[in-house]
Design a protein that fits this description.
It is built from twelve helices and no strands. The protein has one domain. The protein is an all-alpha fold.
């Protein structure tokens, strides 16, 4: 059981559910501001959004493990640098878990769309987005030319976990009835960008850690292309931008002021950790940044 939990990568699962929380709570805030009633079964819809996001992230994790194993990428990795120690499993086990989680994610998505109060056109659009997400999940590491090996991994997690996770939940919780104003959708778009940048930063740290081994395995991540020095600069820039967006979009200014000091300390500690090649602590601080910004972004 302990090994099973370790293989879930619990320290990184926040990348799936935090955007959903931000989208869902901002939908509640919008309903209050516009004096509207919540859609029917809003709690059920929120729970389904969480399930879809978590299942798809688990599917993505296992797919990456499976294809790295069969392509020999794992053989070049230094396991002492792993942020979350995980037991090595047979590739067939990773494959089974990959199919199970993606299947459960797809089923949860179908139930979600069917249970929503969206009109037929919106439901079709959501199903298409879900299908694209499943294809992207596989193509990340499993296609003949995996885009995760070409430097587009960060773009994918930013798009699907940050933007789609946040805005999709927001849209469904409002029953598709959104107002095209700053206080309506555009403010939430900025919040989705903020949390998406932090999630992309999590992948950047992993890829910074693996620059040498990824290069040896012909895995051309964006960090391999940039090099460690420029990669650290890009990472710190994106997390600082995420922080600034968080500060600019919150309505609870007293809370923001109290969090500013903490966020500044986190970013300073990040820079120090990365310069010292302390990727484990950098990963933990990135996770902490995600949670602190979520507190800011839900208002």
């Amino acid at each position: 059981m302990r090994n099973f939990i370790k293989n879930l990568r619990p320290l990184s699962l926040w990348a799936s559910y935090l955007p959903v929380i931000i989208g869902g709570l901002n939908a509640i805030e919008t309903l209050k501001l516009e004096k509207r009633e919540p859609v029917t079964s809003s709690i059920l819809l929120f729970a389904l959004c969480i399930l879809v996001a978590v299942f798809l992230q688990l599917g993505s994790n296992y797919a990456n493990e499976y294809y790295d194993a069969i392509n020999g990428v794992d053989k070049t990795k230094d396991k002492t640098l792993e942020v979350e120690s995980r037991p090595n499993l047979e590739p067939v086990i990773y494959k089974r878990r990959f199919f199970f989680n993606t299947t459960m994610g797809a089923i949860s998505g179908l139930i979600l769309v069917n249970a929503s109060t969206l009109n037929i056109i919106s439901k079709v659009v959501m199903l298409v987005i879900g299908a694209i997400a499943l294809v992207a999940l596989y193509a990340y590491a499993g296609s003949k030319h995996p885009y995760g090996h070409k430097g587009f991994g960060e773009v994918a997690v930013f798009t699907f976990f940050g933007l789609v996770g946040t805005l999709g939940t927001y849209y469904i919780e409002l029953g598709g009835q959104i107002s095209w104003t700053y206080q309506g959708i555009w403010k939430v778009v900025l919040k989705a960008i903020s949390i998406g940048l932090v999630i992309a930063g999590m992948l950047m740290i992993n890829n910074l850690r693996d620059i040498q081994t990824d290069s040896e395995a012909q895995k051309q991540t964006i960090m391999v292309k940039l090099g460690a020095k420029r990669g650290i600069t890009v990472y710190t820039t994106t997390t600082l931008l995420a922080s600034l967006i968080g500060f600019a979009t919150t309505r609870i200014y007293l809370l923001t002021i109290s969090c500013i000091f903490l966020v500044i300390l986190i970013n300073i500690r990040q820079i120090i950790n990365l310069k010292e090649l302390n990727y484990k602590d950098a990963f933990i601080y990135n996770t902490l940044l995600g949670f602190v910004l979520t507190v800011i972004l839900i208002f």
